[in-house]
Amino acid sequence: MEFLDQPVELSLDLCLKCNICTTVCPVMAVTEAFPGPKYAGPQAGRFRGGEQLTPDASVDYCSGCRACNMACPAGVKIAEMNARARGALVEQGKVAPLKRLRNNLVARAATLGQVAQPVAPLANLAMGLKPARWAADVFLGIHHEAPFPPFSRESFTGWLRQHQAERRKAAPGAPGVGSVVYFHGCSTEYYEPRVGKAAVRVLERLGYEVIVPRQNCCGLPLLSNGEFPAARQYHENNVRSLLPYARQGIPIVGTSTSCTLTLKEEAPELLDMHDEATRLVAESTYDFNEFILASGRLTEEVLSQEIALRLPYHIPCQYRAHRIGKPGLEALSLVKGLSVVDGGHTCCGIAGTYGYKTEKYAIAQAVGAALFDWVTGFGAPLAVCDSETCRWQITHATGIPAIHPVELLSAAMGYAPEGALRDVLQLK
Amino acid sequence: MRIIPTEILVIGGGATGSGVARDLAMRGFQTVLVERGDLSEGTTGRYHGLLHSGGRYAVKDPLAAQECIQENRILRRIMPGCIEDTGGFFVQTPGDDPLYAEKFAAACQQSGIPCEDVSLKQMLREEPRLNPAITRCFRVPDGAADSFLAADLNAASARAYGATVLKYHPVLRLLTETTAGEDRRRVCGALCHDRIHDEEVEIHADLVINAAGAWAGQIAGSAGIAVQMIPGKGTMVAVNHRIVHTVINRLKMPGDGDILVPAHTVAVIGTTDVKVPDADNYAIEPWEVQLMLEEGEKLIPGFKKLRFLRAWAGVRPLYQEARWADQPAQNRDVTRAFVLLDHETRDGVAGLLTITGGKWTTYRKMAEVTVDKVCEKLNSPRPCRTHLEALPSAAPAQGGTGHAHSDAHSGMRTHSDGHAHSLGQRLAEIEREHAYGQLICECELATRRQVADAIRSGDVHTLDDIRRDVRLGMGPCQSGFCALRAAGLMAALAPADYLPAENGKMLRDFLQERWKGLTPILWGQQLRQERLNELMYLDVLNVDHLGEKAERRAAASQAADERPGDKPQSPASRRGTPAGETTLVIGGGLSGLSAAWQAARHGQSVTLISKGWGANHWGAGCVDLLGYAQGDLVQAPRQALQALIQAEPRHPYALAGLETIEQALHSLQTLCQESNYPLHGSLAQNWLLPTAAGALRPTCLAPETMIAGDCRQDGRMLIVGFEPFLDFWPQWIAGNLQQQGLEAEGVLLDMPGLRARKLVNGLILAGLFDQADFRRQVAAALQSVEHRRRLAGAQRIGFPAVLGLRHALEAKQHLESLLGAPVFEIPGLPPSIPGLRLHHILIEAVRKSGGQVFEGMLVTDKQARPAEGSNGPALEFVLSEAAARPKAHRAGRFILATGGILGGGYSAEADGSLHESALGLPLAAPQREAWLQARFLAAEGHAVFRAGLAVNAHFQPVNADGQVFYENLYAAGGAIGGFDPLRERSLEGAALATGYAVGAL
Hints:
The complex is a heterodimer of chains A (428) and B (1001).
Chain A: H1 20-24, H2 37-45, H3 67-71, H4 78-91, H5 97-107, H6 109-116, H7 120-128, H8 130-140, H9 156-170, E1 178-183, H10 185-190, H11 193-205, E2 208-211, H12 220-223, H13 228-247, E3 252-254, H14 257-270, H15 276-284, E4 285-287, H16 288-295, E5 310-314, H17 317-320, H18 327-332, E6 339-342, H19 358-378, E7 383-385, H20 388-398, E8 402-403, H21 405-412, H22 419-427
Parallel strand pairs in A: 1-2, 1-3, 3-4, 5-6, 5-7, 7-8
Chain B: E1 2-11, H1 15-26, E2 31-34, E3 50-51, H2 62-78, E4 83-84, E5 88-92, H3 100-111, E6 116-117, H4 120-126, E7 136-140, E8 143-145, H5 147-160, E9 164-166, E10 171-178, E11 185-194, E12 199-210, H6 216-221, E13 229-239, E14 247-250, E15 259-263, E16 266-270, E17 274-275, H7 286-299, E18 308-319, E19 338-342, H8 343-347, E20 352-357, H9 363-377, H10 425-433, E21 439-441, E22 446-447, H11 448-456, H12 463-470, H13 482-493, H14 503-518, H15 524-540, H16 552-555, E23 582-588, H17 590-601, E24 605-613, E25 628-629, E26 632-633, H18 637-647, H19 652-674, E27 679-680, E28 687-690, E29 696-699, E30 702-703, E31 717-722, H20 730-739, E32 744-749, H21 752-755, H22 762-769, H23 772-782, H24 785-793, E33 796-800, H25 808-819, E34 823-826, H26 833-848, E35 852-855, E36 859-865, E37 874-880, E38 887-890, E39 893-896, E40 906-908, E41 914-916, E42 950-951, E43 957-958, E44 969-971, H27 981-984, H28 987-1000
Parallel strand pairs in B: 1-2, 1-12, 2-9, 5-14, 12-20, 23-24, 23-39, 24-35, 31-32, 31-33, 33-34, 39-44
Antiparallel strand pairs in B: 3-8, 4-8, 5-7, 6-7, 10-11, 11-12, 13-16, 13-17, 13-18, 14-15, 15-16, 19-20, 21-22, 25-26, 27-30, 28-29, 36-37, 37-38, 40-41, 42-43
């Protein structure tokens, strides 16, 4: 179809005004602050440009969840149009300085992590202080209840160095089926190293040598805050660092579904990076589950341990936006004894950094309300979700810990689980 | 007959006429202007909107060029609100004469036109879409003008100075008299026809100004004076959005298709110049459109592939004082300078001046010269001031045109605001006012306030008049969503002489007017858009039959609901697909969902993938099986189906067979029953249910929430709408129902809770109706003193089809118990809440049966296994578009349920070819010339929409020789060609029956 190669802005010409997007937009359903995907996207798009690039600041209330894109029968790239309109707002100085400072704070998990992780206990203590949170709310616009996870005391890459050293000692030069680059993302590095550990173990068990090259934040939080130049810098760095592997045909695999989507599509598309290097990196990038399923090595034999749990599962919007189905669910269906149920909810509301913001926190909670009710009503000790911010949102709203599918796969392979999964399995 | 005496009569309400009227009035002449239609309905409203710098004529026609630049400066001063300072480029594209550039620069200098040499780098920075192969670029002070607004403001100014402006007053003939004693005739006025009141009016004047443009010859001719106009048709094409923000001219001698003007939200490419014998009767030729596209491609690579909104033509009032035979062979060689003919000296007939030729840009100068002549004739020298005094802008209304004022209450300004004519302004205003819930025309952001102001001005007689005032219906959907809203609003505001009988016609006329401008450019996405408009106005609203009294009464019968009794429960399995077979369904509309559901029920492992959602979200939420056969209302579907099956053996219904159709209906009824959302009806009879246009639509199965509205039954209806829900106008609906012999009354509920909302659409109302509390509020509002009497008189109560998304049946029953009368829903514009309910029920059914459903997946390619031995070729997998790389879907069986043109199953191209989108199957296309009918609502339908795949008895797509393309490929729903589900009103029935059949195979 011709519209596949339509640039973002031209895709507004595909709109039939048919309103299907408005039936799926989770934000429009709960707030009047956002005029809806049809209005903010292709409709307003015809009025932007010329003297007034983006006179409609309400477009900033789009959470970027892409439910509209997925439902649109015509192929309008609504979420991307909205992201670009937001980028224009920032570029034109239409975002108040304090708000922009706030956006940059919440969008720079990597910087934050670099500063805070070495003093994790202290940082966590500060983050937990009510007066501090209120001050951030009042002065910066970061909601005092925003679901920030605690910093991990140990970094993922710190663990990895040790792990790889031990592995070399134990089995020097063991023959494998090939190499894989692991893109861990900021959350694994600073907050949830257990996800990365599980991923490395699973990949190694499947016979792959795991390489973890230098990497930046994928840039998505910056993109979704309209900070395009900074995002471009991040992405250029990542492309530079990942390109040599992509050139050798080594797949790049990530457990964060939003990071992998950014590498695959968001960054090149939003930033108009269509060079060969960016394209090659994009085409070499895989979601973790997508990759292990395609490898054909994830057999019931490998998944030897039974996990007798029935758990609620939520597929993140950014995962759906890969348009590859539900590989997370598919992989987990191979685990003996495990039953994972998809509730079919559109969005948890957090949308990256959206739900952290004072003016959007309540919207994000309302968007996720049905999901939260369902998770709570499910009565399981854990919930499963592939994206970090969604997990934190679910846990924040329900009090139920949320884990990544890879943690279950790793446990099913017999590796010792960590965190909430360990607690649950120990209890059993 | 009325007689209106005046000093001066001006004939023509275009730029020139309204400009002359203003000048006359400002100089104190008593003035009457008559216009045969609406202001700027002629050439003024049909040009590309270019404010010339004069650059275009600098080399060839220096006189015209000088006039242009002088007036350009004046107009920027006196009508800033009508002019957008876009600036203009003259660019040399490959193949253009390189020597022209120097001539151009020199000529501009001579004519006093500022002309700056622009570096190509700078040019591309400002206009990145321009052809990088352009070799030269000059900047000149071109601009974009809103000619509708300018004429309105000139007329408003004239009125403010005491002139009378009479629209819809065509001149029947000039009146002449011969003064006693003299042998000379003089023109002393004109006989007009007041089309509003249908009476003749004589206007007596000392002097008549003929400013009728291309029609000036006819006017003069009615007094026996020969003025040989050369009507020069110019065709223009509008691009869906503003691809450039600067006027782009080609740096060459003026020719066809060499100007691209950013105008409001669109960019207009023009024009051709074709001599036409009749200024009222001309067609847009395919070559003209083709030429615009080819020339546009030279300016902007990829231009041809853009979406085009519309094509139209205006007729230039070219004039050269010469005999017809001596005139230039090419219209381009006729001067663009204007002429003033004094018929006293020219023809010996006093009392008449003709002003013609010229450009929109020079209209004011033309007026000045004309009125100078008037002063001379009447021996009353008075100086011109039109170049000194700005036109009224955003001035308070003075009983004037209704669009030259702002509304103090809302702060929302109509389009005459000083800065209205710049891209982004409307969006900025709506943002400021949070008015996005008040849009009548969503594409062009025309608010209810603006449309209401136009209507209230009393100067609006058609929906097209509103269009010229507020750009109603001028965007991508070309009136799809706004026509109904504007018609309803017009009825709600009910001017004194409002006749509901006129309303259906008014709506249809507007749809037809839009259609006329669409047909030359209907392919690709715009054709798809038109199909959606057809779905709305035919299938859902039944506007094509609005006002027909049909054999409604004859059909009246008590037993509408033949409950499905002992129908066969197990679907016939014709092929016996083994359980466990993997089936991939492509398409998420009703046909795809039914196929997936049936296949999953039969134990197949089913995955449904779909680019997005489909017609369930747009339709009425009923199952239309067969509503019209050969244009006649179908009352008993079973008999009509039998006849159809007999007559058209290739029709999907014939392939499915009556038994399968019945089973399909029955299975859906059972499913809906189990989902607590019963569908009622049977093959015995069609329901006749009211629509949001007040028409009556035949349908076979209707949800329980709708059936109390059955119009074959008697029972006084109360139709209830909600402020500010713009898709449902109860007075209008009731008026139209009354006109069809039904008892109905409308009431618009104004509830504070809804008023306080910024946006009230169907989804929001449905969410509210899911809550018992809101239902109680609605009932209380209806039982209030204000509405109690109406409620008491009602035997049934109709609401828009928004009575809950999740708890519709409960909502209906609750309302009935609160109101004490049967309640029913009336379907309207998308999104369809009843359709969404069915969609959710079916998705749930597929999942419960073990199937999977994925949206956002567009199939773009396939892999097939070649024929082997006795086995024909078969599909191995299809590929769907995904982030970074396509995703493969393997299956044993593939069901193509991608729909027709509207669903995206196939696309129609400008070259007349049709493409099947998913698998690239060859399609037979009707001749390009035969694609479309002249009438939008033509009963026979448009041939292009009947195209589609041919299938065999097992619904397998076959080639022209009847051989299957792939052994394991089936088709369902709109992907199958040979029928027009919208004309037949068989959209859901055909989807359901074929989906059921292939799913259960």
